[in-house]
């Protein structure tokens, strides 16, 4: 196009010269007479030019129509444009070839001037049409092909004024296919009018390597990426610049990425840019050529993003040199014909009935679907009352066909052979013909009928259908469908019976019968396998918007921690954002060049955090978290703590409350321009937790967020050493009013805090009536929660609360009568890591206990005389000093293990609250600490010389049951080890009786030797699937049960799996008595296991008898009585 523009002025100039010379016709009249023949030839030539110009204009008109058509309907326009260019250039050549003939007509007559004027007018019209053509072409699905020496200049889309904005980062990303392997790729100049080289950032190729260079006024800083580019192949280049360092990622078309980081020692924090700042593609202006001397590049660019904004490369500020159209790197998505639809799990599609009717003698529905959900609506037909009278549903993973009769009866057919919520495609048909109803489900992949059922229903009339609803109940339906779940998945190839022709006909999902729809998409359906997960679409070209979710819950609830498990191939985009207001902090997380960026600030941004040399955009699963702690913000990536501090903020700057945006932000929402990027991220989440609570995005306001399934993450070429993410660090809860108790039971004393309450306070609050309230989160089922009495040596009056085998036991005694109340609703208050609030009431002889979370209320009274309580000991919380005698306690020897908060005593209208930060006794010297925010029930073994010595003289009978639960990310490790001390530690096939339960390469091995003279037997359990080595190391709780009865030994995993076990050698029997260890052994004691120590969490459920608890243990090392949550 540039060549065409340059050639038309030549034509105009020639015509002007012709006009000027024609005006001198009177001077050369004699020459005209002698050149009569030449004039005739010239006239013929001019007439021919006129004809050819008219033909050219018709060609332009045709091209214009073609371009307008291509704008909406063509995906193969490159060939037409190339042809158009050829025609225009050919026409121009023809015009140029006639110039000599035109110049010969120097002495043309007056009639020839008219012809010249017509030519001039046609040329002007043609110029205008070419300008229109170029504007149309800039919107076509083409990208740009720079020839050597060409360049284009662009301004920042987000900058509209001359006022400077301080950017923390500048990001650029583009796809490139090189014709040459040297030259400037991209160059930014923040101050184009500056004469000194400062505030410049660039990318260039040299001998096939990508270099980055930047200069903030202290000299050039240059670095190279180690990926070697080849001509003719596509690469994606992403760079992130800050004044202190730059990241450069080069990704090949096979998906392999190479990352480099270049550092400098600049003391500058920001990059100032404004509306006058410019960046260049393919070359730099001549005035700046001395700043970067590698020359011009030649190649094709596509998908150009700067600071997250996508640029139309044809809409530049200016262009020089030759630029040609080129096909996109990826073809524009094809328009859907409505044959398929994705349901996000938060919406539905509603259609009119059309020719489909349910009240005739024949009706049939056929469609193909896939889902991962159990109980959801596939399609339903509503009747006159709005209730569902006909439909297909997922019911417990099975397919159900249900319909109602006009008499009000409901009929249902349910598949029984298999479940169909595994993410595979199935074709389902449901029909009612005459007196029968039929339901069939067929696998699409195998093509064979998976299941078909026909039932006789007799002659019945069905109600008339009013509308068809796919995916869920319409918001206007007063009667819900038989199952309440909203469909998440895909549907395609819908066919409905035609009541007129009695045949099945295709019905489009975007047919004229559509009434309303939400939470669905015609675009972006995953073509291959799907697994569970949450999909954020990123930029959605069909709606010209980005995906995001906005969570309103935390506008009133302070945010303490955020955790996410995700995968993405997007190298730049927004992960989450919580706006601040000067009081509440801004919280910002994004991916830049594959690395994580975190900002937390109240006003001025000073210290962003950015990971180094990570590639989080590799399509593999990663996790990231940020949590508020007393030591600062903790940032973890892939379960490694990479930062702890305040990110330049004042100490104890909390995250606060506010709207939380995930994956992007609404397009109209203002975002501080200092923020690195606002572009929506194309990302999949496995989980997203705020304050340890999993977020349900179907209950948030979302755009482009789907539960229909995601693609599986990329697997490593070599099987990983761990099947799931390793355990995170235990993170402290920032609330100082929470206290964690629980020293190891073998330490010899308990952790506690104590308060010497003044006598007046004791009389006021404990004398006759009171209400004690507190919240607790217990990790162990036995322990003293609080105790106060009238004596530490020989108490007769007391008040106490303790945990006994997971149940709360509340008692008080006045020396004459006693009230004892225990919980008994089946809830174990120490096995789920939840917070519970308890109210304890006393009114003279009457007592009561209330736990609101479980709606448990218990009360009791004694009939003895009322005697005022005269209590004098300190109020002990969490445990007791060793010198305190408390015979009334069931679990005196066990201190409480877990967290407590907000302990208050009320009497009448007054309340006395205890300050956990300032106890009179105990505290940190006895082992109290801040609470962990990411724990659940269980004992954590860190795998580094960690073990528990459970008993010295443990006796295992000839028939026994051993049952433990565990959670790990390892495939190897010992769980239980019992060996006889009478014959020394055992090896598998030498003397010494022993039992060893272990994980071995993902299997369960149980080694059993009950007779010194017999060889040990090994019984193995393996998972029946092909992926058995990864089943037990998925960071989920698994239960393993070993049962021996007579000669039969069974290994049962997760209650329902009995794939291990066998017969015990009759001679290999007897009682085993010796030392029992859990999770490994201490130094000096060998263990016949492939791994000496287990890393993970363990719960003991039965070791011969149900009365099993770690609190009985003799000794231990490197264990925590709390299990880190993922």
From TrEMBL:
Transmembrane segments: none
Domain annotation Laminin G: ranges: 143-326, 340-531, 538-723, 742-931, 937-1123
Gene3D superfamilies: 2.60.120.200
InterPro entries for the chain: ConA-like_dom_sf, Laminin_G, Neurexin-related_CASP
Record protein name field: Laminin G domain-containing protein
Protein species of origin: Clytia hemisphaerica
Organism phylogeny: Eukaryota, Metazoa, Cnidaria, Hydrozoa, Hydroidolina
């Amino acid at each position: 196009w540039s060549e065409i523009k340059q050639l038309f002025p030549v034509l105009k100039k020639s015509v002007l010269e012709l006009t000027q010379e024609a005006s001198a016709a009177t001077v050369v009249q004699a020459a005209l007479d002698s050149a009569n023949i030449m004039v005739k030839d010239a006239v013929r030539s001019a007439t021919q030019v006129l004809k050819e110009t008219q033909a050219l204009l018709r060609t332009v008109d045709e091209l214009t129509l073609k371009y307008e058509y291509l704008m909406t309907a063509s995906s193969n326009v490159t060939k037409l444009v190339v042809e158009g260019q050829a025609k225009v250039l050919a026409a121009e050549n023809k015009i140029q070839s006639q110039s000599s003939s035109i110049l010969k007509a120097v002495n043309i007559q007056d009639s020839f001037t008219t012809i010249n004027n017509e030519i001039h007018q046609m040329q002007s019209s043609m110029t205008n049409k070419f300008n229109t053509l170029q504007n149309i072409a800039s919107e076509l699905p083409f990208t740009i092909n720079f020839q050597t020496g060409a360049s284009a200049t662009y301004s920042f889309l987000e900058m509209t004024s001359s006022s400077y904005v301080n950017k923390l980062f500048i990001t650029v990303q583009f796809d490139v296919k090189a014709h040459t392997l040297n030259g400037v790729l991209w160059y930014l100049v923040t101050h184009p009018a500056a004469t000194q080289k400062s505030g410049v950032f660039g990318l260039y190729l040299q001998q096939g390597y990508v270099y980055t260079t930047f200069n903030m006024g202290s000299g050039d800083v240059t670095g190279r990426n180690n990926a070697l580019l080849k001509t003719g192949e596509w690469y994606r280049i992403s760079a992130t610049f800050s004044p202190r360092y730059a990241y450069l990622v080069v990704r090949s078309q096979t998906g392999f990425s190479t990352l480099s980081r270049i550092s400098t020692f600049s003391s500058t924090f920001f990059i100032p840019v404004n509306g006058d700042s410019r960046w260049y593609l393919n070359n730099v202006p001549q005035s700046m050529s001395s700043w970067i001397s590698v020359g011009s590049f030649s190649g094709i660019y596509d998908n150009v993003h700067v600071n997250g904004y996508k640029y139309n490369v044809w809409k530049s500020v200016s262009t020089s040199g030759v630029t040609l159209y080129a096909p996109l790197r990826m073809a524009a998505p094809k328009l859907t014909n409505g044959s398929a639809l994705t349901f996000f799990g938060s919406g539905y599609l509603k259609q009119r009935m059309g020719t489909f009717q349910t009240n005739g003698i024949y009706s049939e529905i056929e469609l193909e679907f896939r889902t991962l959900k159990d109980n959801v609506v596939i399609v339903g037909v509503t009747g006159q009352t709005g209730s569902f009278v006909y439909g297909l549903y997922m019911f417990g993973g099975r397919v159900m066909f249900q319909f109602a009769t006009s008499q009000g009866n409901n009929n249902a057919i349910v598949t029984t052979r298999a479940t169909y919520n595994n993410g595979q495609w199935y074709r389902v048909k449901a029909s009612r013909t005459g007196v029968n109803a039929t339901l069939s489900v067929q696998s699409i992949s195998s093509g064979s009928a998976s299941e078909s059922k026909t039932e006789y229903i007799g002659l019945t009339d069905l109600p008339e259908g009013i509308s068809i609803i796919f995916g869920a109940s319409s918001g206007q339906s007063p009667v819900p469908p038989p199952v309440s779940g909203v469909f998440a998945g895909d549907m395609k190839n819908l066919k409905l019976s035609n009541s007129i022709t009695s045949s099945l006909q295709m019905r489009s999902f975007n047919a004229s019968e559509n009434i309303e729809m939400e939470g669905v998409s015609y675009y972006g359906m995953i073509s291959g396998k799907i697994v569970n997960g949450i999909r954020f679409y990123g930029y959605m070209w069909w709606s010209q918007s980005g995906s995001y979710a906005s969570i309103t819950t935390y506008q009133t609830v302070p945010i303490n921690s955020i955790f996410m498990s995700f995968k993405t191939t997007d190298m730049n985009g927004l992960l989450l954002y919580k706006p601040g207001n000067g009081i509440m902090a801004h919280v910002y997380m994004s991916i830049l060049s594959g690395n994580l960026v975190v900002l937390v600030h109240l006003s001025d941004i000073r210290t962003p955090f950015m990971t180094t040399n990570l590639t989080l955009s590799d399509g593999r699963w990663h996790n990231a978290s940020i949590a508020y702690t007393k030591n600062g913000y903790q940032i973890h990536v892939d379960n490694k703590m990479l930062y702890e501090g305040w990110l330049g903020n004042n100490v104890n700057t909390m995250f606060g409350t506010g709207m939380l945006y995930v994956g992007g932000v609404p397009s109209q929402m203002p975002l501080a321009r200092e923020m690195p990027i606002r572009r929506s991220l194309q990302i999949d989440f496995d989980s997203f937790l705020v304050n340890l609570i999993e977020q349900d995005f179907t209950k948030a306001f979302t755009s482009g967020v789907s539960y229909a399934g995601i693609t599986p993450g990329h697997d490593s070429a070599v099987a990983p050493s761990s099947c799931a993410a390793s355990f995170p660090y235990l993170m402290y809860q920032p609330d100082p009013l929470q206290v964690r108790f629980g020293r190891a039971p073998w330490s010899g004393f308990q952790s506690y805090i104590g308060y010497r309450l003044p006598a007046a306070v004791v009389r006021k609050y404990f004398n006759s009536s009171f209400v004690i309230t507190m919240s607790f989160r217990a990790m162990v089922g036995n322990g003293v929660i609080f105790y106060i009495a009238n004596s530490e040596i020989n108490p007769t009056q007391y008040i106490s609360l303790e945990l006994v085998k997971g149940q709360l036991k509340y008692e008080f005694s006045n020396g004459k009568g006693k009230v004892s109340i225990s919980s008994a609703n089946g809830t174990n208050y120490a096995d789920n890591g939840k917070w519970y609030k308890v109210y304890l009431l006393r009114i003279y002889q009457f007592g009561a206990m209330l736990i609101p979370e479980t709606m448990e209320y218990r009360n009791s009274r004694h009939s003895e005389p009322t005697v005022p309580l005269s209590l004098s000991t300190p109020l002990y919380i969490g445990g007791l000093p060793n010198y305190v005698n408390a015979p009334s306690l069931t679990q005196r020897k066990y201190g409480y293990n877990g967290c407590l908060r907000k302990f208050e005593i009320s009497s009448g209208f007054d309340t006395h609250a205890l300050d956990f930060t300032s106890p009179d006794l105990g505290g940190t010297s006895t082992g109290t600490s801040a609470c962990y925010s990411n724990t659940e029930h269980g004992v954590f073994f860190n795998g580094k010389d960690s073990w528990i010595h459970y008993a010295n003289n443990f006796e295992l009978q000839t028939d026994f049951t051993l049952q433990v639960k565990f959670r790990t990310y390892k495939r190897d490790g010992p769980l239980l080890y019992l060996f006889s001390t009478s014959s020394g530690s055992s090896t598998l096939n030498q003397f010494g009786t022993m039992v060893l339960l272990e994980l071995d390469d993902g299997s369960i091995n149980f080694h059993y030797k009950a007779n010194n003279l017999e060889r040990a037997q090994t019984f193995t359990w393996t998972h029946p699937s092909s992926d058995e080595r990864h089943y037990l190391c998925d960071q989920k709780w698994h239960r393993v049960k070993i049962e021996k009865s007579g000669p039969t030994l069974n290994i049962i995993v997760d209650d329902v799996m009995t794939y291990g076990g066998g017969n015990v050698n009759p001679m290999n029997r007897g009682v085993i008595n010796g030392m029992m260890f859990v999770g490994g052994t201490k130094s000096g004691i060998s263990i016949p296991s492939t791994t000496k120590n287990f890393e993970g969490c363990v719960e003991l459920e039965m070791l011969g008898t149900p009365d099993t608890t770690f609190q009985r243990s003799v000794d231990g090392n490197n264990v925590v009585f709390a299990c880190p949550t993922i």
